[in-house]
Specification:
The chain is mainly alpha-helical and 159 residues long. It has a single domain, classed as Up-down Bundle (Four Helix Bundle (Hemerythrin (Met), subunit A)), CATH 1.20.120.1630. The protein is 66% helix and 0% strand. It contains 4 helices and no strands. Helix 3 runs antiparallel to helix 4. The longest helix has 40 residues. The radius of gyration is 18 Å and the shape is elongated.
Length: 159
């Protein structure tokens, strides 16, 4: 009986891991495509060095920690057991829904901001102030949606 329950739990966990992987790859494709497209359309290249060392270190290191924790969950969930939460299944499924909504919003954001997208916190010299689309309501939409996306991954992984 206990062995059957463990099999069901592992199967369920693999479903959540698969959804997490699909969301993560989709996010990378959306972001990569639009950032590459903006870089090609942009008049000038913005160097990562222009951000300044403190901002560059803070952003890259926090992003690295987030990504490594998600990758650790995908590779072997027991590595992240120390941070696991006993979330109900419906709450974990809501993480999947929030992930899909986040990716849809990200697509809208990147299409709205267009060639003003950069891989740094710096703006282009020839940037245009975007006031339409999601920027009508929220000034830092990419950060807001990125935060929602990582909340969705946390719910899916239950940690």
């Amino acid at each position: 009986m206990a062995q059957g329950y463990e099999e069901i739990r592992m199967r369920r966990e693999s479903v959540f891991r698969s959804i997490t992987a699909v969301l993560l790859v989709t996010a990378a494709v959306i972001s990569g495509y639009h950032r590459h497209k903006a870089e090609k359309a942009g008049e000038e290249h913005i160097s990562l060095q222009e951000e300044g060392l403190p901002i560059a270190v803070a952003l890259r290191s926090s992003g690295l920690v987030l990504m490594l924790s998600v990758l650790a969950y995908l590779i072997n969930p027991s590595w992240m057991r120390w941070s696991s939460l006993g979330l109900l299944r419906w709450l974990r499924w809501s993480g999947a829904g929030l992930g899909v909504v986040s990716l849809s919003l990200a697509l809208w954001i990147f299409r709205t901001i267009g060639k003003n997208t950069t891989s740094t916190v710096q703006t282009r010299e020839q940037h245009e102030l975007v006031t339409g689309g999601p920027y009508r309501w929220v000034r830092h939409t990419i950060y807001t949606v990125g935060s929602l996306f990582f909340v969705s991954l946390s719910l899916l992984a239950a940690n």
